[in-house]
Amino acid sequence: MTRYRTPPAAPLPRTGRGRSPGWRWPLRVWGPIVTALLWTQPLLIGLFLAGEFDRLAAHGMVGGILVLAVFVQFLLSIPAWRPGGMHGAAVAVAAAMVAGVVVQIVAGIQRNLGVHVPLGVTLAAAGAAVTICAWWPARPATAEQPANAPHAVPDAGAGPYTGTGPDAGTVPNPDWVPTSGMVPSSGTDSGQWPR
Ligand code: HEM
Hints:
single chain, mainly alpha, 2 domains, two-stranded antiparallel ribbon, two-stranded antiparallel sheet, elongated, disordered C terminus, binds protoporphyrin IX containing FE
């Protein structure tokens, strides 16, 4: 007779991702503010170029605010990454944005538009990317069993639990050794699905 045993619901190794997604919330709130400020810049300069000359002063003022804003964004990206579980690349992008905004201000004041305009577009895209990373759903720390995993593993009569009486399925068989494809219930690989 083929006997079945139900494998344990096994937690996957804790990778850090999704461990405490609550730590992402400060960045989830702050990131869109930074992105909105960044996207305001080309709008203001467009109005300036269209003849509203006082918009250049506003463009410069928003630039000054952005120096502080991207630095705060970088600080908030660290807990969003660990323990928040956000992708680590977003921290690197947030750090690069701090340097980028400083270069951007200098290039703007010097009217070095060959640097200023492409860097401005890059910063606007980078801000959106950091915000998307902050909002990207966290992978749960305890993953569900794979969709194709069997709910019960055929155990051709030689499984770790033997017996047919009231103790059936509870008495360990010390001679049993897990074979390839089986889910061990004890030992060094305890509870891990084969991957
Ligand atoms: C796509 C985005 C951007 C575009 C197209 C853009 C364009 C420009 C242009 C054309 C000027 C020179 C205006 C002139 O005097 O003729 C300028 C100046 C300036 N920009 Fe930007 N900019 C952008 C983003 C930014 C960002 C993100 C910052 C700061 C973080 C910034 C800070 C400045 C500053 C400080 C000036 C000098 C303002 C002044 O002299 O009063 N810009 N920008």
